[in-house]
Write a structure and sequence with these properties.
The strands form three sheets. This protein has a three-stranded antiparallel β-sheet, with no helix packed on it. Helix content is about 55%, strand content about 5%. By secondary structure, it is mainly alpha-helical. InterPro entries: Hs1pro-1_C, HSPRO1/HSPRO2, HSPRO1_N, Trp/Indoleamine_2_3_dOase-like.
Length: about 525
Amino acid sequence: MWGSERGGLGEWGKKRGENGGRSDTNKLQQYGRFWSIFDKVVWWNGIVEAAKNGGRHAPCLRICCYSEEHYDGKKNHDDCDQRRRLQGVPKASELSPAAASDSACSAYEHYIRLPELRKLWSSKDFPDWKNESLLKPALQALEITFRFISTVLSDPRPYTNQREWKRRLETLATSQIQLVAILCEDDLEDGETRGKTPIVDLSSSGGVLARDGSSAEVWKLHGDTTVVSRISEASLLPRLATWHKSEDVAQKILYSIECEMRRCSYTLGLGEPNLSGKPNLDYDLICKPSELHSLKKSPVEHMNLENYENQTLYTTHQILESWIYVSQQLLRRIEERIDRKEFERASSDCWLLERTWKLLADIEDLHLLTDPNDILRLKNQLAIKASSESEAFCFRSRGLTEIAKQSKNLKHKVPYILGVEVDPKGGPRIQEAAMKLYRRKGGFERIHLLQALQAIESALKRFYYSYKQLLVMVMGSLEAKGTRGFVNVDWSDSLSQIFLEPTYFPSLDAAKAFLGDYWSHEQEHNSPERRTRGKQ
């Protein structure tokens, strides 16, 4: 309807219907010019249906252009905002996740000892090593996972599902090792960081054990070559490998380290086979396991809760916050690399960020294995309660809401990546540039980057959707505020706002829609049946 009233695609659809839907490259380039722009809201009439129905309009697909680029024009959007309010949809600026109250956030941070953890993550012990702020918290999250394995297998409660716990923690450790390996590989590819990583050269000792190296072994390789294999003395993983309850889990993790670190020039040095005799990362010096494990008790231990789920909840969120910090550093590096036009490397970081969002969801899913009675009792013991209907527990993490906003704000990089400026009048420059890029493949590294940006959006929304489901499973539907959002759009619920809001990249979405229609008509025009009808 809006297409006909606002100079849309209706007449053009009739012409395409009369011409049999014939398309060429010139018309592909002109598709964007048929967009009807009204108060920065783009209305698109389905081209295929218009051609088939002789110009009758298909249902409109509304795409909001507020979100993808900064609009610097002086046009007043009050009418558009009023229309959105009448439809029950908030303005785009209102959709960004907001942290909970300061008191709730501070209580959460105190509970998991976040200030002490931040000091460990942010300490600069190696000034020449650029990736320290990324790899250190990632290794510390892995080390906390080893402690978590020990905690779960020491649980005296007979009714816990230890078999599933072991499987979940095995998988979680493997997923983290994969991300650590990717970060280590980036060290080798980056000329600025190559050779700066703190490692222990196994061959430099000449096959002689140091007096303080009680966890080292002398290996003899081919010929007269000998190396000293050092194993971390402070990490819990080598100890888990010697405990009968955790031996199988630890061995699987050690073999995962061996497999995932194959592309790296060094290994972690946690007792993995290291069949290639590669240098070891100076794990104890970087990760500081002893200092990390000094934070294993939560501040509420003095309350004598007598609830084993307290350790589960506390440790889970320490791992979660460690990877949130990694994501913050990764987002900073993505923006720097995009600004330097290092699109291929920025693309690699974006795909890594997408995987960290998936990892965060896996960490949160550990709550599914908590005992219902014990976790709900703990909730009341700790006086955990949402202060408003729109406040979910995850919004108590300032870091989580911050990386959600930063991930969303990557949309502002799209015009720069495409090499175009935003049209102050709201013209379709961005979608036209995206269509040309997708069609001609003049810069495939930019295509990789744009695809990765959309993958981040998908992973982010999937995280918040799964978190809403998680609340229902663990706490019951009364705690998952705004459950009507599953059926109808309930914009009063913060979680629903995030995963139900329009795409962050409407121009990329529109470019793909037009490109798909172009190839649809090309296929129809070149089909054998149509050629036969033309000859008759």
